[in-house]
Design goal:
mainly alpha, DNA polymerase, domain 1
């Protein structure tokens, strides 16, 4: 209850008055003069004390959800999130949210509206994880409106838990077998030799496609035989990795030889073209990094040429992890190579691929154990 003067956003020099009177709230932008804002606030306080102040609701309609969503998107998402995230959020708003909520005044949207929309999307075939992401996108502009004191509560808050949208999010992993991965690389080397080093790097390191495409020659340590992964590339933009952290991945002997040979070829090409400096991207065409969609198309062509089943490029990463774990490597080592944020993520994704412990250990429980060679003397009371 009462009148408050606040600077919003903090440090901007712009002062607002916030009024809370008889269950109604209103905010008013005053300007850059704090003294003027305080004087106006004092006059309003005096009127409230005398009972001569009536805070009537604005006759003009509130902004629509779409208007707030666009403001939220341009303020918080576009400048602060990765381009891939920005693109996905924008697509969700246009395809799923605006048709249902876009034209509604934001102060008229209720929890039931959000709930019914999410249930309808799930019924139409969207997965729980996708619907949960849509809820997060819906919630963003609502939270923005709460901060602006346009609405008192976020109607999208807690919906995911009530609808159990966060459950059953287990990732289905369908990696290649050892023979399938060998066949893929053989066919690639024979019919698509230009892309063989790239796919060999993916199969032997488990790096994400964007991380492979972002590699520069300076990221390779030839003496210690490891690759420093610290960037990702997509649609002309080199950005940080998915987790925002760098990591070191080991190079196998064969991958070391393949990349060494590629380096020699790059230097030879540069000398023919009269260039002294080396082209920086490791995997490139005409000196430019290759795009992810182009590599996906090449991946599909190799699969068809090899007569293999339909798969995704990301399944190469799953293949790398599954082959290491089936060989008995530690999940901790696999977690470090993949760059997972936690060991729990590695175990949740690949736990079914980890070999069971030695069966001899449990069989020993069935074997009668010899009696103890030494028995403790009975306890005696102290004098």
């Amino acid at each position: 209850m009462g009148v408050k003067v606040r600077e919003k956003p903090k440090g901007s020099g712009v002062w607002w008055i916030f009024i809370d009177h008889r269950g109604r709230r209103k905010s008013k932008k005053i300007g850059e003069n704090e003294k003027v804002a305080k004087k106006i606030a004092e006059k309003i306080e005096a009127k409230i004390t005398l009972g001569d102040f009536d805070l009537r609701p604005d006759e003009s309609p509130a902004k629509t959800y779409k208007e707030y969503a666009q403001l939220w998107f341009e303020t918080y998402i576009r400048p602060l999130r990765k381009p891939s995230t920005t693109e996905r959020y924008g697509d969700i708003l246009e395809r799923h949210v605006y048709p249902a909520l876009g034209n509604m005044p934001i102060n008229t949207i209720r929890r039931g509206d959000v709930r019914d929309l999410l249930l309808r999307l799930h019924k139409n075939g969207l997965s729980r994880s996708t619907v949960s992401l849509i809820r997060n996108v819906i919630s963003g502009p609502m939270g923005f409106a709460v901060d602006e004191e346009v609405i008192e509560a976020n109607p999208a808050s807690g919906i995911s838990k009530r609808l159990n949208l966060d459950k059953n999010k287990k990732i289905i992993v369908e990696p290649m077998t050892r023979s399938e991965s060998a066949l893929f690389l053989d066919v690639c080397q024979s019919y698509f030799p230009e892309y063989y080093p790239l796919f060999m790097c993916a199969f032997r390191t488990g790096m994400r496609l964007g991380e492979v495409l972002a590699l520069s020659w300076g990221d390779i340590d030839w003496n210690s035989r490891f690759i420093l992964v610290k960037r990702s590339y997509r649609r002309g933009i080199v950005d940080r990795t998915k987790t925002g952290k760098g990591r070191r991945v080991d190079m196998s002997d064969h991958l070391f030889d393949v990349l060494r040979k590629l380096l020699v070829e790059r230097k030879r090409e540069g000398l023919k073209e009269g260039r002294v400096e080396l082209v920086e991207p490791v995997f490139c065409r005409n000196g430019k990094r290759m795009e992810q969609n182009h590599i996906r198309r090449v991946f599909k062509r190799v699969l068809r040429k090899a007569g293999m089943r339909e798969m995704r490029v990301h399944d190469i990463r799953h293949t790398f992890a599954s082959l290491l774990l089936s060989n008995g490597e530690s999940p901790v080592y696999v977690k470090e190579q993949l760059g997972h944020s936690s060991i729990q993520m590695t175990v949740d994704t690949y736990g079914h691929l980890i070999p069971g412990s030695n069966r001899k250990a449990v069989n020993q429980l069935d074997t009668p154990q010899p009696s103890a060679p030494y028995t403790h003397p009975p306890k005696t009371k102290k004098a």
